[in-house]
Every structure is written in structure tokens, then in C-alpha cells.
Structures
1.
Amino acid sequence: MDGAAILEQLMTVAGREDPYPLYEQARALGAVTPAGEALLMTVGYREVNEVLRDGTFRVPDAELRGRWEEGFADHSSKVMFSRSILERNEPDHSRMRSLIASVFTARRIAALEPAVVEAVHRLLDDMADQGADGTPVDFMDAFAYRLPVGVICELLGVPAADRHLFRALASDLTVSLEMIAEDSELAAADEAAEELAGYFTALAARRRADPRDDLVSALVQVADADHGRLSGSELLANLVLLLVAGFETTTNLLGNGLTLLLDHPEAAAGLRDGTVTPAGLNDEVLRFDSPVQLTSRISLANGQRVGETEAPYGSMAVLLIGAANRDPLRYEHPERFDPTRRDSRPLSFGGGSHYCLGAQLARLEGAVALPALLTRFPELAPAGPPVRRDRLVLRGYQSLPITIR
Ligand code: HEM
């Protein structure tokens, strides 16, 4: 298969289910391989890392998508992401990043730890009730979704009574981040975008009138204080992004992590006896089965290269993070799940100026949740095959049945 055929295969149901053999076929062709018109499929750790850190490559923003992506402007889901920090280039990106970072601070995240610990134990209590008589429990539904959605909603100031609304909406919305999607899926994504925008318009209005100690209030205040720094539609887009990015990915860190622990009892034993640290486990789960498998950048300067390969004006580097994380030039025995690795630094949170704003929060949730789960349920076992979500970009499980005794 040539590069284009491999990329095409990656977008099939089978490719989405297990992209790793295809990544290795791509690697056999080189760290960077042309994959059709103006596409460079990039699987090398060094090459992906370099492009992420090279500010002269652009994220595909509204202007670029409008030029190259047919029907882009007709999809409110795509337009919404393009107004958020994720899909902005300079100078807009720095303007938004400094504003959001000023309220989404390391101190605020660190201060959340007791609330995360409490939420974990509350959810484990609920799972204990559900599964006490040996009834299978779906870990994705009972825990992996609920923890991150609870934490990000707490941080944003979304009332507890509304949190059940978001699982289906976020799942519908994030289809628009995939490289390809059916028209019906995009229609559902657009509806979800509009519903979420409506929700946050109302919440922002309530917090404007009656501010609290939460992120929505803080962002409304910075937006209002200087209108030029964050417009109303940008405020909304970023609130929706924070909500969705805050749990879709972390849910998958927890689900992918538990599956790997079930498949590797030695890693679970290591976590129990302290030879595996929670941080080491996080890093290895992120490396081995990254919740975000790919992102992309566009070359708009003459003479640019991705690794050794020329990247002509307008070409897109498809950065396969999940493949880079298994590059044998960077990792010894990359196919082994080994949470005792040192200096792992997977690229799962990206790199450079768009490096994930929520990395600290996601790591905190993973480091508290997975060890607490194993300690609480020493008999935890699979109760049937886990079912993957049919996605390439955001990789995780739809359901993961377990018994806890
Ligand atoms: C395991 C969990 C997570 C993973 C694997 C992950 C992954 C990523 C990646 C790969 C990017 C960069 C995309 C690119 O450069 O194109 C990113 C950006 C971002 N993430 Fe995360 N993320 C996670 C959790 C979170 C959480 C919990 C939040 C928020 C509460 C969050 C908020 C964001 C935001 C706002 C950006 C955009 C930053 C920018 O463009 O400057 N993420 N994330």
C-alpha cells in the first residue's frame, strides 16, 4: 500500500478500530510519506514533535478551511471550533491563550485535588452499590464519563443538575473533529453545537448578572472588561471547547487506562505495590493508546519541510500522534505496555504553543482515579469484551463492562 491507501484505510471502520498495524505500515515507508494531494502523513516522533513546536506551521483556521474544505461555513459545529483557541493562529491565538490561561491557572487546578478525590470516592461508592451482587457495571458510564464531566462542570460553574445533558451532545459535536464524517453525523454535530451555544449563552448571562467563583464568571468578566480581547462568539466557542475537551479526552484516558490494566495484571500489581507510580501509569497509557490520535498543521511558507520531506505551500501535515508515540527510534520496545518507562514524554497533549491547557487537570484525574479504583475493587475483572467508539481522532471506548467482586 502507498501512503494514500494507508490513510484511506485509517478512515475505514477496521482502521479506526485498530489503527496500529496501519501506522507500522506507514512507518515502513518512512517517518513522513506523501499521502495523496497535498497531504503528508507523519508518523515519526521527532518529526511530529518538530512540526508541533514550529510556529510557522499553522493550525487549519476558519480562513484556511473556508478556502479548502467544501461546505465548511455551512456547519455550525465546525465554525464553532474555528472560533475557539484550538483553531486560531497568531495573533488571535496568543490573545485568547493568555486570557484563558489567566483564569485556568495551575493554582486553580491544584486546588481542585480534594474535590477530585471526593468525587472519585463518591463514584466508587455508587459502583459498589450497583455491582455488589456481581451484576456487571459499565465502567464508561458509571465512572469514566462521570468523573471528568463532574470536575470540568465544577470548574466552569455548570450546575450539577445539568450535567447529564452533555454526554450525548459532546459525542455528537466531536464528530466534526474527525477527518471524515457522514452528512447525518455532521447534521447532529451542528445541532449539538447550537444547543451547547444556547446553553452557555444563558449561563454566561446568569453569571454576568450574578458572578460566582467559577470559570464562566471569570471569563465573562475578562471578556466584558475589554471587549476587543474576547468577543461574545469567541467566549461561547471557548466555553464549549473547555467543556467538551475537558471530558471527552479524559474519559478516554480512564477507559483506555483500565482496559490496559485489565490486559496487564503485572502493571496493576505494580500500581498496588508501588513499583508503578500513578504518573508513570498516566504517561504509559497516554503513550500506548492516546485519547487523541492525530492533529494537523498546514505549511504556508516556502521551503518548509516535515522532517526531510518538502512541504509545499498549502500542504497539510497529518500528525499521527498515536504512531509517533510508538516510534522505535524514540522508545525501546514501543509495542510493550510498560508503565515503568522513564522520560517517556508522549506527544498525546500536543506540543508548542497549542499544548493542551488541560494536561495538568487530566493527569490529576488519572492519577487519583485509576489507583483508587484498583484499591477499592481488588477483584475487579472484565465482564465481556469492551466496545470501541467508532472514531479515529478521539480514541476510546463506548462501553467497558466489568464486575467488581
Ligand atoms: C487525557 C486528556 C487530554 C488529552 C489527551 C488532550 C489532548 C490535547 C491535544 C493533543 C491538544 C493540542 C491539539 C493541537 O495542537 O492541535 C489539546 C489542546 C487543548 N486541550 Fe486538551 N487534552 C486532554 C484534556 C483536556 C482537558 C481536561 C481540558 C480542559 C479542561 C483540555 C483543554 C484543551 C484546550 C483548551 C486546548 C487548546 C489549547 C490551544 O489551542 O492553545 N484538554 N489537548
2.
Amino acid sequence: MDSREPPSLTFASVLEQLWSQLADGQRLRHSAFHQAVLATSSPRGPSARYVVLRQVDRERGVLGFHTDRRSEKWAELERDPRVALCFYGQNIQLRAEGRAVLHHDDAVADLAWKRTGLMSRRCYLAEAAPGTAAPMPTSGLPAHLSKDRPNEAESAGGRVNFAVVTVPLQRMEWLHLAFEGHRRARFSRVGFGPWRGEWLVP
Ligand SMILES: Cc1cc2nc3c(=O)[nH]c(=O)nc-3n(C[C@H](O)[C@H](O)[C@H](O)COP(=O)(O)O)c2cc1C
């Protein structure tokens, strides 16, 4: 290959940058990494949709998001937990893969629910399951909630529908788009072991 890498680009520096972007994604609503496309396998074939990045555990290499356990994606994950997540922002694409771990009736979901604000809890108060056919355009929420957040007591009714999906990552692929030539690296690991990097031709 004819182009030399600047000495600053190492597997460690790429990982550092990735986890810092993910940490920002979790904290900052306007960060490009605040949401990701989540791909699952459905009986029809691949299925993709956005989710909000809610948990980032750099030490363990785990990402997490919240969902309604009545949703199609939940049933898909019960059948096949293999997922791919795709992020893009600041000229960086991150493709991440792992096996989803489903949390509904456990301490992980309890804690996440406790930390979930009333406005976000409102999503879990829809009477019918997400994806249910409706005779007209609808939010699915009880009418009085269309302009207001629920109070604490009322929001508690959403807990039964609330779930957390965590994804211990097994593989990450970083693609940096740049005028002087793109750069691409893959990181993989066994279980929770150390990340092993490889440079790839973009
Ligand atoms: C920016 C954005 C963020 C979203 N975040 C979530 C999320 O965190 N969890 C979720 O279940 N759905 C989220 N949704 C809605 C999903 O993309 C999807 O429409 C819904 O969950 C139904 O998907 P399913 O039928 O595959 O289960 C989000 C949609 C958008 C556009």
C-alpha cells in the first residue's frame, strides 16, 4: 500500500474515539450517536429501525436501549437474539454486532425504569401494542395524555410494557470517511475478552 498512516492512528486511539462518541451519544440528545439503526431478523427477513442509545458500558463493551415488550422487535429478539447496530456521525460509521440480552422482569429493567422521565414513560402507556392496526391515525395514548405527561402514579402503569435490551458487543467495525482516503478497522473479541483489531481496506 502506498499511503502511510499518521503515527497517531492506532487500534487504541480508534477504540478511545469510538467509546467516547458512544458515551456522548448516550448523554447528549443532539449527538449523532444518540440513535442507531437496529437490525434484527424477522420471519420476513431483515428488519431495521432506529432506537435511542440508552446505555453505554465501556468496561464491559455493552450497549443498551429501551423498548416496549409488546413490540415486534421484542418477539424477533426472543426468536433470534443476534443484532446489528449502525451509527453514523462526524464522518464515522460504527457497525456493531452482538447477541441481545432481554430484560423485563429484573433489576436491570427496574433501575432503567426508575431513571426514565415521565415524558419517556408516556410511550409505554399506549393501550394497544405498538404495531396494532388502527382505524385512523392515532398516538395510541389515552386522550388526556396527548398534551401532557403522566403523573408519577399514572406512569407506573407503563412499567409492565417497559423493557431493556442490552447487547454485549462481539464485533465492531469503524469506518472513517476522509478526503485523503477512508480508513477502516474491525475489532472483535471472544466473550468479554480484550478487543483484537485489524485494519481493513475501506
Ligand atoms: C429517532 C428514533 C428513535 C427511536 N427510538 C426508539 C427506541 O429507543 N426504542 C424503541 O422501541 N423504538 C424507538 N423508535 C421507534 C422504532 O424505530 C420503531 O418504529 C418502533 O419501535 C417499532 O419497531 P418494531 O415494530 O420493529 O418493534 C425510534 C424511532 C426513531 C425515529
